[in-house]
Amino acid sequence: MTNPYADMQINPFEDAIVREPREVTFSVDGLNDAPLNRVLTKFAALDRGELPRSTPVKPDRAQLVVSPDRGYGKSHLLGRLFTALGRKATKVYLRPFQDPYKAWQSILLLTLQELDRPDDETAGSPSQLASLAVGTLAHIVADFAQSGEPEITAAVPALRRLASGTLPAAELPGRLAWLRELFAGNGPINRLSGLLRNRHIDLQGHEKAWLKVLVACAFDEADGERRSAALKWLRAEPLEPEEVERLRLDQADNDGRGDVTPQEINALSFRRLQGLCQLASYYRPFIFCFDQTECYASDPMLIKALGNCIEQLYAELRNHLTVVTANQRNWVADIKPHLEPPHRDRFSPEIALEGINKAGARELIEARLKDCGMPAKGIAQFFADNWLEDLFSTLVELGVRALLMRARKTGSECWHAPMLRHFLRRRSTISSRSSSTASAPRRRCRPTIRTA
Predict the structure, then answer these.
(1) What whole-number distance in Å separates Cα of residue 373 and Cα of residue 371?
(2) Sign of the dihedral defined by the CA atoms of residues 225, 229, 235, 238, in that order
(3) Is residue 4 predicted with pLDDT exceeding 60?
(4) Interatomic CA distance for residues 428 and 142, integer angstroms
């Protein structure tokens, strides 16, 4: 017999998995605050003082967040981390790479996808890449002025505010136009590229190319040909001759040749990522989050590639923090034994996640029911048979996913309760009326409180 509750697809406990950290909108008070604060404390070391940094900051070891089992909130913790960091970091969520020979290519592409997002969804907001480009160029020009260029010394305060995103909106168009005009020719780029080394930023001989690419990212239209060519260069892809000319690059800067091997593409992808992390001295640090690491467990080659990535992130990249999540059993039995001993040392001591207790469980369930519009009497009836007390009668804590699965079962059973049946049928009637008067599909009560 078909369950009407399930057919209506409004059970607020159906989805118990976080698939994207930015989906996280609710957290039980106090749950896993200690692990979150440990990671935030490590990040704070990258965020001290005013921009630009005098020198790139060496990273700490990868922060290893371990869950007792699946469903204890690893991805949920990353969502809380992203929210807490806000605009202090460029936050890169790294799903598992599939090819051990293209690990850096995968990481670079995900990083550029993140940079292509705006910080907020406001119409017309610049992408993070455009903000990084403008901030870098503005700081470099300000450094040049402070080094003794009297013609633009007066502009230094405004340039610093432009780079930090604090310039008044009324002044923004004029200052951007002035900066764009300043970089219209190769002359200023040739002079300013040398200033990168004053802040110990090493772009391996491609300083001029990086500035030209940043100019395109900062000032070209979102779908402009020059910006498209700049993105290809950042992705370590080969450029056509007309694209090289469009960006005003030297031929030696077109290093993503079409005949390169996968290993060479991977190495070039790493150098591009290395450059972006170096330039974060002018913008803000990166945080790289490796999630769903159980996907590596079945392939020793993928595990080895992961270990190599953690090693290189620690030894060769700057201005970033790495976070790795893992299930305890997968980490101990399947992943750690296949890591090279030196690579194991690049991980922090385990940061253990905790389960949810009875008070937290009630808070989470009530929040989901309220989010779905359930009235107070219906919420009370949801707990009427003391199933929650029975669940925790022999447990101190439980994985959040296991709790939500149990709540889903209770929700399905509650269809037969008169008050809930009346509430659900009423919502069904309202939805049907809305469908008959509007062209949009029937609105579903979708849960927004999720956990991993």
Answers:
(1) 5
(2) positive
(3) no
(4) 61
Residue 7: CB partners within 8 Å, gap ≥ 6?
A: none
User: Can you read off the two tokens belonging to residue 375?
Assistant: 């009235």
What single-letter amino acid sits at 91? K
Query: Could you tell me the pLDDT band of residue 429, with boundaries at 50, 70 and 90?
Result: low
Contact present, 338 and 304 (Cβ < 8 Å): yes
Residues of the chain with CATH 3.40.50.300: 32-122+284-352
Q: How do residues 254-299 score in pLDDT, each as one tens digit?
A: 887 777 888 999 999 999 999 999 999 999 999 999 999 999 998 9
Amino acid at 40: L
Q: What's the pTM?
A: 0.86
Nearest C-alpha neighbor of 286 from the set 38, 19, 57, 35: 57
Q: Which of 189, 278, 270 is nearest to 234 (CA)?
A: 270
Please state the φ and ψ torsions of residue 351, each to the nearest 5 degrees: -105, 105
CA distances from 100 to 273, 293, 299, 301 (A): 17, 14, 10, 6
Instruction: Tell me which residue has tokens 């959040």.
Output: 400
- Say how far apart CA 152 and CA 133 lie, in whole Å: 20
Note the CATH number of domain 32-122+284-352. 3.40.50.300
| Residue closest to 232 by CA, chosen among 284, 282, 269, 281 | 269
Cα gap 362→337, rounded to integer Å: 39
**Token digits for 300?**
């020793």
Q: Between helices 103-115 and 128-146, what is the axis angle to 10°?
A: 80
Instruction: Write out the two tokens for 57.
Output: 């900051």
Q: Would you say 99 and 301 are in contact if contact means Cβ atoms under 8 Å apart?
A: no
Contact 95/291 with Cβ under 8 angstroms?
yes
Backbone angles phi, psi at 419, to 5 degrees: -65, -45
